[in-house]
Amino acid sequence: CCFKRRCKWINIKQNLSKRRTPWEKSNQWPIVGKLMNFTDGLFITFEGIDGSGKSTQSQLLYDALNDLGISAILTREPGGSIGAEIIRSLLVSGDTDRWSAETEILLFTAARRDHLEKTIQPALTKNQIVICDRFVDSTRVYQGVARADLRQTVDELHSIIIKKEPDITFIIDTDPEKSLTRGLARNSGEDRFEEFGLEFQKKLRNGFSELSKTEKSRCHLINGMRSKEEVSNDILNIVKDYTK
Ligand code: ADP
Ligand code: TYD
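Above: the input record for the complex with adenosine-5'-diphosphate. Below: its predicted structure, written as tokens.
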């Protein structure tokens, strides 16, 4: 049910159970020591069109870090804190014309501010790795490019209210037709953005692809049209490289 789904995400999964100490596993994956040395945490985001596999890949990365005994949390947007989950329910359901693009920018940013204050920043301060399913790049592309031509508004508001960019962003690139079918098949009742249709998803795909070119230092465009395992391996290798 909707409540259970919300709780799943509010009750952020904290990896505190160190099944093996990092140094015990460091032979298998030498980055462990380095990841443990981050002093300001590490902020990793997943982006892409609806149904592209972001949640799947966020979970697989979280599980891989968990297996290595690395302290990480898994969270999502819109949502990830009690207040932000309430705002989420306003945004993801109802008619497509329920909100204008401008109102959406304000609502997503309000939710993001609460999420940052209550969940993301406290975890980073504790030197944890934060894995977040969507962040400001979604607003840049959904509201800034696909819904309307408002990229500058998104960036200006972000620079005043949020002032935080991810360290690493994985953009999962997939075929809009397949992803839309997969997304709608979930029957989640949270399909307001899927209801904008295939042309909208195509615009989103282009928007994310353009963004990856302008934010080269942190954005990695990942071919998501492969098996879950293949995609996940690429992501793990990039996280490893990042820490070299
Ligand atoms: P998103 O979070 O981007 O909306 P999900 O991770 O929820 O996407 O994936 C949407 C659906 O597609 C789910 O049913 C999931 O199991 C499936 N899926 C995810 N990645 C793949 C993949 N690489 N190949 C085939 N199906 C996938
Ligand atoms: P999500 O649950 O991640 O959707 P999906 O699993 O289908 O990818 O996100 C909910 C919807 O909110 C999604 O359609 C994208 C949209 N969204 C925006 O339009 N702007 C934003 O800033 C964010 C974070 C999400």
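Notes for the reader.
The pocket of adenosine-5'-diphosphate (ligand 1) is lined by residues 48, 50-56, 182-183, 224, 227-228, 231 (CB under 6 Å).
Confidence is low (pLDDT under 50) at residues 1-8, 10-30.
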